[in-house]
Design goal:
Layout: E1 3-7, E2 12-18, E3 23-30, H1 32-36, H2 43-65, E4 74-80, H3 84-101, E5 105-109, H4 110-116, E6 129-134, E7 139-146, E8 149-155, H5 161-171, H6 179-186, H7 211-222, H8 228-257, E9 261-265, H9 272-281, E10 285-287, H10 299-310
Parallel strand pairs: 1-4, 4-5, 6-9, 9-10
Antiparallel strand pairs: 1-2, 2-3, 6-7, 7-8
Helix pairs in contact: 2-3, 4-10, 5-7, 5-8, 6-8, 7-8, 8-9
Bound molecules: 5'-O-[(R)-(carboxyoxy)(hydroxy)phosphoryl]adenosine (KG4) and zinc ion.
5'-O-[(R)-(carboxyoxy)(hydroxy)phosphoryl]adenosine (KG4) binds near residues 135, 137, 180 and 183.
Length: about 325
């Protein structure tokens, strides 16, 4: 069964086709340049751009797969969490196509997509495993017993880690979205010049907090000569503190859940230092998807959508999206 997937939860328009064995085609159009001059995503502009780009992107993805619309037997779309208007564009097109083609359509949880993206790789974990899900909007430690069986063990009480990366990058004068730019700048930084706090590691528990770290970076920046080396040193101290904090919490999470496999998922999972450190320092097998499957993409929605559509799940014709939606509310597979 060929499943066509649509991702439009934030500022990437992406389409993929997956047949249960392999990804037949996958395309991503990033709106990053559109939002860069505003220093963050402008929701109304995001919706309009999804509307302009989605139909041509579906055509070119079908071309890439050498398929026509009549070869598609199911449609999956991101139904939340995310920006309301952006989600609606994908949901409306998915439902309309599903109705016109008389095929089942299903709304997928964006974070379930991130969580399962690793399953598209050659090297993938067996269930159960612990997932560190780090993106622009979420920071979660999730006990992942199977598809649809998720237990949140810890989460951020304020900023998501990607959000903290982006805000600190903005402070340092880097372009939006700043996570990858900050990581690049940090490579030139001196790791001994500043030491930033490791938030919420001095007390038990698996929750996170990153807004204080961002404020610490701001105070350091304001009290330092703002030359290029200082910027790099601050970037380095910030990245070291984030990675160290995530390492401590993952170690705790593995111990508490008695699991010995860890999956890193979400946009910040593309961070090289985070991947290397968790792999080297944890007493567990560590898995992660390729970098382009860490940041927002439709391949992960196609994978999750295929699993659910293939066992008969689908929704009626109403166009439902859920800007706020917990992973724990999902149903098991069959
Ligand atoms: O998963 P994602 O594409 O979108 C959300 O669902 O939020 O994550 C985007 C986040 C942004 O905050 C971006 O700065 C961050 O992932 N990011 C990185 C890196 N690449 C992307 N953060 C740190 N290091 C990176 N290499
Ligand atoms: Zn995402």
């Amino acid at each position: 069964m060929n499943v066509l997937a649509i991702e439009s939860s934030c500022d990437e328009t992406s389409i993929a086709i997956y047949d249960g064995q392999q990804l037949l085609a996958h395309q991503i159009y990033s709106q990053a340049d559109l939002h860069a001059k505003f220093g963050g995503v402008v929701p109304e502009l995001a919706s309009r751009d999804h509307l302009n780009k989605m139909k041509p992107l579906i055509d070119s993805t079908l071309n890439e797969a050498k398929l026509g619309l009549s070869d598609i037997k199911g449609i999956a779309y991101t139904a939340g969490p995310g920006l309301m208007g952006a989600l609606f564009v994908g949901a409306a097109l998915a439902r309309s196509l599903g109705w016109a083609l008389a095929i089942p359509t299903l709304g997928i949880h964006h974070l379930e997509g991130h969580l399962l993206a690793v399953m598209l790789e050659q090297t993938k974990p067996a269930f159960p495993f612990l997932t560190l899900l780090v993106s622009g909007g979420h920071t979660l430690l999730v006990q992942t017993d199977n598809i649809g069986q998720y237990q949140i063990l810890g989460q951020s009480i304020d900023d998501a880690v990607g959000e903290a990366f982006d805000k600190t990058a903005k402070l340092l004068g880097l372009a939006y979205p700043g996570g990858a730019h900050l990581a690049k700048l940090a490579e030139q930084g001196n790791p001994r010049r500043f030491r930033f706090p490791r938030p919420m590691t001095d007390r038990p528990g698996l929750d996170f907090s990153f807004s204080g770290l961002k404020t610490h970076a701001m105070h350091t920046f304001n009290n330092t000569e703002q030359d290029q080396q200082s910027r790099a040193d601050i970037a380095r101290a910030f990245e070291d503190a984030v990675v160290d904090t995530l390492l401590i919490k993952c170690r705790r999470g593995l111990k508490q859940s008695k699991l010995n496999r860890l999956v890193i998922a979400g946009g910040v999972g593309a961070n090289h230092q985070l991947r290397q450190t968790l792999k080297a320092q944890l007493d567990a097998d560590v898995y992660y998807p390729r970098q382009s499957f860490c940041t927002d993409n439709a391949a992960m929605i196609a994978y999750a959508g295929y699993q659910r559509l293939n066992c008969g799940q689908h929704h009626d014709l109403s166009i439902n999206v859920s800007p706020r939606w917990s992973l724990e509310d999902l149903s098991p597979l069959c």
